[in-house]
Amino acid sequence: MKSVYDVAQLLKKYGIIIYLGKREYDIEMM
């Protein structure tokens, strides 16, 4: 069960990084 929790934490962390990177990319394209 702990491994599932760790994976969820990793996904959340990478999701935030991808989201921020996507926003910066969108701002540059405008």
From TrEMBL:
From the Swiss-Prot or TrEMBL record, give the protein name.
DUF910 family protein
Q: So which domain of life are we looking at?
A: Bacteria
- One Pfam family name is YqgQ-like
